[in-house]
Amino acid sequence: MVSRVIPVDPFDLVIFGGTGDLARRKILPGLFRRFCSGQMPGEATIVGAARSEMDDDSYRTFVREAIVEFGGGRHCEDGTLDEFLKHIGYVTIDARGTGGWDDLAGRMRDGIVRAFYFSVAPALFGDIAERLHNYGLATPESRIVVEKPFGKNLETARALNKTLAQHFDETQIYRIDHYLGKETVQNLMAVRFGNMLFEPLWNSQYVDHIQITVAETVGVGGRGGYYDTSGAMRDMVQNHLMQLLCLIAMEPPARFEPDAVRDEKLKVIRALEPVDYHHIVRGQYGATDTQPGYRDHVENPRSTTESFVALKCHISNWRWAGTPFYLRTGKRLKSRSSEIVVVFKDTPHSIFEEDAGRHRNVLAIQLQPNEGITLGVTIKEPGPGGMRLIDVPLDMTFADALGPEAEEVPDAYERLIMDVIRGNQTLFMRGDEVEAAWAWTDPIIEGWTRRGEVPKPYDSGSTGPDDALMLMHRDGRKWREIRS
Ligand code: NAD
């Protein structure tokens, strides 16, 4: 059953970049869905703040259109959207200037939760933090939500942490990684730490290897300029895949509390061994007769930025010594699928004839498109024909398990915004975690630059370069098929 909805406390939420793509597609529709569910209280206000000249009414029209386009559903027609829009306001503001800040300060109410969502380019984070302080908007109870990318290497991430720390305490800073807001990601913790079944087997004695795949079908789209300075390693591995790796590999925290969980994640990152460059494959999607390739998309015919990465890494601790982790992510792949796969070892001895077949237990945690968990269990093939073994899935696809109520499960952004209002940092990255992740990532990227490495081309709609398949074949393993 879907859990009860508990309304959060009244709040003032300011969305810097309130006219941007992220606000339109995710933040505003997400807030509306929380309003529909009864979680957003009647006393809440949401203020869009951006450079565009608009008044409250024209912003409400903008918000209405965004919600209708991106998932308001049936509530758009029944008057709920009109009710929601009464909570919306707008301030024209310049993050680097003086205009709009007094107006914004005048709209804030005392004694209630105050949250500032930095949905703007990272170059503006410092300017906004400083002005929130100078204009008296930042109270000890205020929180700020910071979008990715959080720096582009260790040095810039450190500098950003330092800038934010001048005006906000770490307990006020919510570094968002929307992968952590996904239902299955949290379920991963429930499965691991809420059952007796898995945790005793969750180590290198029983787990052969773990795969994490985040495959996208889209190319770089309109983000070409940014993406070409970033690449898959910075854009996906350093944050999203790293967070998934932490949750799958961490020790049980003493409590499900922010710092207990984040301490354990940090230990995983710090225990990651440097990656041997033979164990990394970079790729870049090429053009076809009908489709432009990566270099066309980013309008850089000599780009050596990767749109695909596959790598093998090891965690040097007692639990995982000897169990490799294979990570892969890329754009323009055959289907959109994010999955964590735990492949258990063979049984120590088979009592069956060789031709009965031999199978391994596989636990697959699918994050998108259909959130759910499947456990492959070996059984006898039914019917006559002697003892033949087959795999059957114990399927916990949420949509099937929950029925129509699955639609009510909040998406990652809406859940995380409500966590900000509640003051729960468990699913947000701490500053030292982000820095540790960069400390592991930087030498990999620097190595590519030093060696002048060029990514391997791969076809759009494929599973990436052949070398990525070889990465596992060499170890006598294979990637699980990328499924939609
Ligand atoms: P965008 O370019 O669509 O929007 C930027 C917003 O910032 C606009 O509202 C604009 O008016 C405002 N802005 C720009 N300069 C300003 C200034 N000087 N003063 C005040 N406002 C100013 O960007 P976006 O795609 O919405 O992304 C916002 C942030 O979220 C970025 O950090 C991005 O990396 C991150 N992000 C976006 C997505 C996404 O899907 N769009 C996903 C993950 C992270």
UniProtKB/TrEMBL annotation:
InterPro entries: G6P_DH, G6P_DH_AS, G6P_DH_C, G6P_DH_NAD-bd, NAD(P)-bd_dom_sf
Gene Ontology terms for molecular function: glucose-6-phosphate dehydrogenase activity; NADP binding
Record Pfam families: G6PD_C, G6PD_N
Residues binding NADP(+): 17-24, 51, 148
Pathway(s) it belongs to: Carbohydrate degradation; pentose phosphate pathway; D-ribulose 5-phosphate from D-glucose 6-phosphate (oxidative stage): step 1/3
Active site residues of this protein: 240 (proton acceptor)
Class of this enzyme: oxidoreductase
Residues given in the record as substrate binding sites: 178, 182, 216, 235, 331
Reaction(s) catalysed (UniProt annotation): D-glucose 6-phosphate + NADP(+) = 6-phospho-D-glucono-1,5-lactone + NADPH + H(+)
Cellular component terms per the entry's GO annotation: cytosol
Domain Glucose-6-phosphate dehydrogenase NAD-binding per the UniProt entry, residue ranges: 14-187
Keywords noted in UniProt: Carbohydrate metabolism, Glucose metabolism, NADP, Oxidoreductase
EC nos: 1.1.1.49
GO BP term, example: pentose-phosphate shunt, oxidative branch
Domain Glucose-6-phosphate dehydrogenase C-terminal: 189-480
Family in the record: Belongs to the glucose-6-phosphate dehydrogenase family.
Biological role stated in the UniProt entry: Catalyzes the oxidation of glucose 6-phosphate to 6-phosphogluconolactone.
Protein name per UniProt: Glucose-6-phosphate 1-dehydrogenase
Source species: Pseudoprimorskyibacter insulae
Lineage: Bacteria, Pseudomonadati, Pseudomonadota, Alphaproteobacteria, Rhodobacterales
Name of the encoding gene: zwf
